[in-house]
């Protein structure tokens, strides 16, 4: 097919504005799959994604569309992950396109991720087509939303397409718009091969599959390709396209989107954002924008049953095959035994990995509270990073500590500005800016410590604004903070897995609430258990779990056996996630209690 008849595009949207539904409609309309073949939602094909209704890993599909001008076009839809944890992957997917459909919910208008994503698209010089979706909703107000897009983003919306992805309205207009407005790719077949890797996955038979967009040159089986960031050279064994199933083709030319396989064993060799070139005739320079992704959030993962340690390691290794951003290393906790310290891009990424370990690999885990990476400057001049609070040296050894800060953007109806400000202030936020999007909605910008965001900022933001607020954030860098380590002692023994790093001004308050919480969580045992919070040697709070007095079944006197069974079962269920710490049984919730204390 002529390059002139190729269109490469992405769909960008805030979560739930209808990206996957619209993609499905485009696939259906172009007959890429018959509706019988279509699964409920083709592009979100991981179970977890479907359950949570969010896209985690990008998928792509090639569509063929015969437009009203009589020409047949090849449309490559490159799906982007829809969550703030995956910004870098979104930006690389966008770099593989010439245009993007910007979907905005006709009832809700612009949200935080709409803006974050549209800025990424503009950074990549994409042609943007505005699509106002969900016009079937009674509360839809497409005119207001169009105005908002004009005012806030500055896009001309006179040719915006109005759709209902759900009922199939406006789908043909979207396709016509793609063909007319998005420019065809430019590129030269004669030049040395230059292709962008925008995603990858591991296949048990073929090894790592790189998802690529060819910029210049040709890639085909038999040639030697070189990944420029890692200097890895392999022979290309297969190339192909997504229809959406992987279908082999003889070659990929400039402007084409597809996959490349070459018996590569390790996803680390195929990095998102890297450039593939011809090893025998390489380009002088790699494509711009390559960045190595680094985890921002760490937590400890420990098997409840220590005999499952090897199983956990194997499972993590398997997950890592498909996920270059997951890192882990063995860790020993005096409280929890042998486990792993794992690093994730963000909280969602962390939850997804935890759930997959439990669901797909059947391992019951104890997870410790997530932590950011702190930079510690010691008095002897040594500087190092810690991702486990229990590793913090004694206060005497520390000159100062730095923690990561983010710029957070919150969009809310103006009635909630007060509560958002209050919450952000409480979370050590520094107010930066406030802007009206229209008469009813406001965008607030704050600079906050990342650790406060991973505690419970988003949950509290949502509940304080009845779900109306949307949030997006990006890393700013490290700043000095007055931080201390708060230790928790059970039965006078410090429990390393419960240590946290907190701001000095909040340490006493958090310590007090935390021990109170723990008293409610740690079940009564045969003896009394003191719970203490301490900073250094100084105990700042104490509670006591009283010794057990009565049998749990005592109150089920008399007949009802099913009730009795239920109670016993509940107790057994609770047992599953207990860890023996010294002579105290500690349930999973205890390690997460810190996240819910304000
Ligand atoms: P992420 O994958 O998380 O980015 O979400 P998404 O943007 O892909 O949203 P999705 O397509 O999953 O749609 C979210 C919800 O909105 C689903 O319940 C859809 O059925 C619904 N929805 C999508 N399009 C329309 C529409 O045109 N009208 C109405 N009424 N509902 C829609």
From TrEMBL:
Is the keyword GTP-binding in the record? yes
InterPro entries assigned: EF-4 (IPR006297), EFG_III/V (IPR035647), EFG_V-like (IPR000640), EFTu-like_2 (IPR004161), G_TR_CS (IPR031157), LepA_C_sf (IPR038363), LepA_CTD (IPR013842), LepA_IV (IPR035654)
**Domain Tr-type G residues, every copy:** 4-186
Q: Which domain of life is it from?
A: Bacteria
Cite the GO molecular-function annotations of the record.
GTP binding; GTPase activity; ribosome binding; translation elongation factor activity
Q: Binding residues for GTP, per the UniProt record?
A: 16-21, 133-136
Query: Cell membrane: is it a keyword of this entry?
Result: yes
Q: Its Gene Ontology biological processes?
A: positive regulation of translation
Name of this protein = Elongation factor 4
